[in-house]
Specification:
The chain is an alpha+beta fold and 96 residues long. The protein has one domain: Alpha-Beta Plaits (2-Layer Sandwich). 38% of the residues lie in helices and 32% in strands. The chain has a 4-stranded antiparallel sheet. α1 runs antiparallel to α3. The mean pLDDT is 96.
């Protein structure tokens, strides 16, 4: 079974307090579901049409596991805490 990755790009952070509240809940929810943070922060370098925006990369054992964590009550509580505090693009990508 192929691993899966959450790729989350933050287009804008509108409320740092809401983002902090989200992070406090999201980190434990993701770790409890088997997610492993591989990278997070601003890019060291951008090329082509890349944007210098905060990016988070999280590894899971499968697409099913990644989806289950996203849809879990604990992660949904984290999203509720974030509310409109950030504009993000979250994708689940299957590994090769």
């Amino acid at each position: 079974m192929a691993k899966a990755y959450w790729v989350s790009a933050y287009r804008a952070v509108k409320d740092a307090d809401k983002l902090a509240a989200y992070a406090k809940l999201a980190g434990p929810a993701i770790a409890a579901g088997g997610g492993r943070f591989l990278a997070r922060g601003l890019p060291a370098k951008v090329y082509e049409y890349g944007l210098a925006e905060r990016t988070v990369l999280i590894e899971f054992d499968s697409v099913e596991q990644a989806t289950a964590v996203h849809d879990s009550p604990d992660y949904q509580a984290a999203l509720a805490a974030l509310g409109d505090g950030a504009e993000r693009d979250l994708r689940i990508v299957e590994g090769v």
